[in-house]
Write a structure and sequence with these properties.
single chain
Length: 276
């Protein structure tokens, strides 16, 4: 009985460390967003249908991150689900407390507006919480992590998560629109080619799935780099639509914005093994 009690205490202590790390990951990932004026405004005025769609879309992403890189060491559908729910709670607490301390939450705002501000920041916080084990402690000493054994769809999922990791930090800002307006078609093509080139190089340098096909670079390019970049563009377009950047814009301007946002997103996707 004494030994069992000690094991339980040890497990509780380990989970306490994991939870503390989750709060650290949430804070590390959300500080730039929590201190971004555009995010404050979007929380107040973003169309609630788009906000709801953002949250609904984020739920399977969070569950997938819990499976591949959750903040705790336990795996299985139930621990992954619990990690997802705890990460959401951590995201809400982190966002709510920090926005309150930064005096962003206006006492005159409606409950809907306040919840919108917290909810919009809570999702990135939950992502940061789930990535805490990777970001704050590196690899486990016990051996390979689950993402090291991911299937091809799993590798593409990790690319999407990595793309979102970086894109979410810049998608709400006005600079994306400003850069896109200044971008000529030649600049856009050059940026697209640079994104693809850097993706292909980084994929092999960080030991991503494409490395096993290093002897077949053309096959690897189409199998991983090009497919990953396609997902990057979809993620970029989705984020721009969520934040209303595509409204009233010509097709050429939307394409420019997608390519511009796709640049940091492609770096995140290529370096997903380091970020996720």
């Amino acid at each position: 009985m004494i030994q069992a009690f000690r094991i339980d205490r040890s497990q509780e202590a380990a989970y306490g460390r994991d939870l503390a790390r989750a709060f650290g990951g949430a804070l590390l990932f959300t500080v730039p967003l929590l201190m971004t004026m555009e995010m404050w405004r979007f929380g107040l005025h973003l169309d609630r249908t788009r906000l709801a769609l953002f949250v609904v879309t984020a739920l399977p992403l969070l569950y997938g991150l819990a499976h591949y890189a959750g903040f705790s060491r336990h795996r299985g559908w139930l621990p992954d689900l619990l990690d997802t729910l705890v990460a959401l709670a951590v995201g809400f607490l982190t966002a709510g407390i920090l926005l309150l301390l930064l005096n962003v939450l206006n006492a005159d705002a409606t409950l809907d507006q306040t919840l919108g501000q917290v909810l919009l920041q809570a999702i990135p916080g939950a992502i940061g919480a789930l990535l805490a084990r990777r970001q704050l402690s590196g690899r486990d000493d016990s051996g390979e992590q689950d993402e090291d054994q991911a299937s091809y769809p799993g590798e593409l999922f990790l690319m999407v998560a990595g793309a979102l990791f970086l894109a979410l930090n810049v998608a709400p800002t006005e600079e994306i629109l400003l850069i896109a307006v200044q971008t000529t078609p030649w600049h856009a093509v050059a940026l697209l080619l640079l994104s693809l080139t850097l993706m292909h190089v980084i994929v092999f340098q960080v030991g991503f799935a494409g490395q096993e096909e290093a002897g077949q670079p053309v096959t690897a390019f189409f199998h991983f780099t090009l497919a990953g970049y396609g997902l990057v563009l979809l993620v970029s377009l989705f984020m721009l639509w969520i934040f209303g950047r595509t409204e009233g814009q010509a097709l050429s301007e939307i394409v420019s914005m997608v390519v511009v946002l796709g640049f940091p997103a492609s770096l995140g996707a290529a370096a997903a093994r380091l970020l996720v």
